[in-house]
Write a structure and sequence with these properties.
Helix content: over 70%
Structural class: mainly alpha
Low-confidence stretches: none
Mean pLDDT: 79
Strand content: under 5%
Number of domains: 1
Number of helices: 4
Distance between the termini: 46 Å
Largest sheet: none
């Protein structure tokens, strides 16, 4: 706080000195040629250059380090968050793959159970006729197909949620202040082209 007040006092003093030294030059403006071409004008240009860029350099040295450190901390936190999200997505993917691996076993078990049921029913109902056996066989196939469709639908839902979560993590990790700034600058350029 004190350094900011001190900087303002230095800049104010330098500006006051500049104006006081410029008054004689302004008073003699009509009598002399362009004062900017004189030695005094050259001195004032260099003095102005030193004041402006000295102030900018001071502000960068004073505030720039803290800004870049905080920006680096934000980027690091984003990377850590994206890493944890990726690990969670990998766990869910492995879980889904395990379910897929068991799906074939479950389907084959259901088919074998259905075949056993069909054989038992065929023996028991053989006396009822071939028409009744076909009806039972079709019902078993329909039940297997429905179970298979339900399992595939669950798998699609899990894969879709994993893909959305992974995509959100990737986009979040790539979107930083620099990217937003570039997007805004591109928008301004396009907006300027639209007016022409």
């Amino acid at each position: 706080m004190k350094s900011g007040r001190r900087l303002r006092m230095i800049v104010s003093g330098a500006l006051l000195a500049f104006f006081l030294m410029a008054l004689p030059v302004l008073a003699a403006e009509d009598a002399e040629p362009d004062p900017a071409d004189s030695t005094t004008g050259l001195i004032f240009r260099w003095l102005n250059f030193l004041i402006v860029f000295g102030g900018i350099g001071y502000l960068i040295a004073k505030k720039g380090g803290a800004f870049f450190r905080s920006n680096a901390k934000e980027i690091k936190a984003g990377i850590l968050q994206a890493t944890s999200a990726k690990e969670e997505a990998d766990r869910e993917l492995h879980s889904a793959e395990a379910k897929i691996g068991h799906l074939d076993q479950d389907v084959s078990q259901l088919r074998s159970e259905a075949a056993q049921n069909w054989a038992t029913e065929a023996e028991r109902l053989y006396s009822s006729g071939v028409a009744e056996i076909d009806k039972i066989n079709q019902a078993a196939r329909g039940e297997l197909a429905a179970s298979e469709r339900a399992a595939q639908q669950q798998l699609r839902e899990v894969a879709a949620s994993l893909a959305v979560a992974d995509a959100a993590a990737v986009v979040g990790s790539r979107m930083n202040a620099e990217t937003r700034s570039k997007m805004f600058q591109t928008f301004l350029v396009d907006l300027g082209k639209g007016k022409n």
